[in-house]
Amino acid sequence: MTQVIALAGKGGTGKTTTAALLLKYLTVHGKTPALAVDADANANLNELLNLEVHSTLGAIRKELKGDLPPGMTRDQYMEMKIHQALIEEQGFDLMVMGQPDGPGCYCAANQYLAMTMDRLADNYKYIIVDNEAGMEHLSRLNLRKIDYLLIVSDPSARGILTARRIAELTGPLQLDIHEQYLIVNRAPDPIPSALQEKIDAAVAESKLQLAGIIPASEELVGQELSGASYLQLPDDSKIIQQAFAIFDRIFGQ
Known about the structure:
Elements: E1 3-8, H1 15-28, E2 34-38, H2 45-48, H3 57-64, H4 74-85, E3 87-89, E4 92-96, H5 107-120, E5 126-130, H6 136-139, E6 146-153, H7 157-169, E7 177-187, H8 193-204, E8 209-215, H9 218-226, H10 238-251
Parallel strand pairs: 1-5, 1-6, 2-4, 2-5, 6-7, 7-8
Antiparallel strand pairs: 3-4
Helix pairs in contact: 1-10, 3-4, 7-8
């Protein structure tokens, strides 16, 4: 059965970095095939994977507004274009949502992404959804359920508070979420006691489980600046071992 992993958090916390590290984890551990969905209109997951995007769901939607090829229904044409837009790699595929139809208009694009995921879900063991900031976007994707919600925070009091508020929103938004985890990203080492207190309070007073803390990493900075894929980071590098230990706690070894 396909398991859905969604990432959430305020902007700039490193959701996309976490998604790229998670994708490496799944491929290294043979938890494949996986589908990575870049559901942020400001798409950049492909950049961390050093992959070129040739088509997006937003572009396909615009094409469907025009004339269709003779003898093809709209559904047939959409399915063909979706498969053409998939970036196929060893152990995983990548789908990019792209830009919405107009300024501030995301509803149609979200509906289209939801339909796409319904069509593709049975082909994968895991679907990773890298979202834009906030939770409203998740509520519009019409996912039947989310097996793992990973809320990513930066190492700040405001970030931890936002993560807690996001966790509290899952009820009112009527999202069917099985497990919720907090990941604190780019943290100093050692963790300041005041930050640890904020983390402990957020976990104690919400449904969040603390998955772990990803330290600030010069390895990741260097990899991004060079344009090299995060998937090429050595398995025995410190940051990969730290990230993998967190994912082991969530998904099991």
